[in-house]
Amino acid sequence: MGHGHDHGAGHAGGRHAWRLAVSFGLIGAFFVIELVFGLVSGSLALLSDAGHMAADVITLGTALLATRLATRPDSTGRRTYGSYRAEVFASGFAVLVMLGVAVYIVVEAIGRAGDGGEVSTGPMLIVGALGLIVNIIAMFLLRAGAGESLNVKGAYLEVVADTVGSVGVIAAGVLVGLTGQTIWDTVVALAIGVFVVIRAIPLGRQVLAVLAQHAPPGIEPGVVGSSLADIDGVADVHDVHLWTLTSGMHVATAHLVTCEDADSHAVLDQARDLLRKDYQIAHATLQVEPGTHRGCDEPGW
């Protein structure tokens, strides 16, 4: 009878779920404050940052939900890889939200160009400073998990962009206060929008690479195939496939053609150890074939 594989205990996103939860609470509470003061002050920089903060709330909530789904046991028997890809979809959603916020900021800034409306700098400085404190706390909370989980990384980049947004709000408040020119509010809002796009694009590329089942970053399929071919008793290697299921979970499949009189059990053990130790691939499906085997044709795709 078959059995599944439970990776949940070592799941990177699951280990950092509490960081997402605390950050979600902090930023959610601050979003309400910033939105109210943005409307009162009439500051586009403050409203654009509030819009980005709203994106943070959505992104963190989605990331937290995805983490719960990823660590949930499969009761259907049909999700043979579990629900780990939920985190990747959540990261993709974070990219779309970031780009949407950036477009909104740019459109609003262009619409206000030359408007010369009145901007109250007091609320901008107070809320900007408070937002900076909140974002720094959330940023340090998420930083520890950003290197391990693509899902946490998406949330972390959102908060980093918001931290820069808070600095921008403070800068806009100071410049408007010193010069009396409200154009600085629009300039800073545009700069925030550009920064958000710059942060979103690399994350989007990572998400697409995982969904397209590219080889994990830093691991070359040709090099892996050569390493497997160097194992004692292996005559040839073919059908090497490498991909990432979700952050920290790399998967491999390969066919190993053995020499005559080779110990297939020893070959299999060495191949699995090599993939685990040298390439951090803990889950590998390896087919060992004797050299006389002729039934394994190359697929047409």
UniProtKB/TrEMBL annotation:
GO cellular component, one term: plasma membrane
Location(s) in or outside the cell: Membrane
Residues of the Cation efflux protein transmembrane domain: 21-211
Superkingdom field: Bacteria
Spans through the membrane: 20-44, 88-107, 119-142, 154-176, 182-201
Keyword Oxidoreductase among UniProt keywords: no
Protein name (record): Cobalt-zinc-cadmium efflux system protein
Organism expressing this protein natively: Phytomonospora endophytica
Source taxonomy: Bacteria, Bacillati, Actinomycetota, Actinomycetes, Micromonosporales
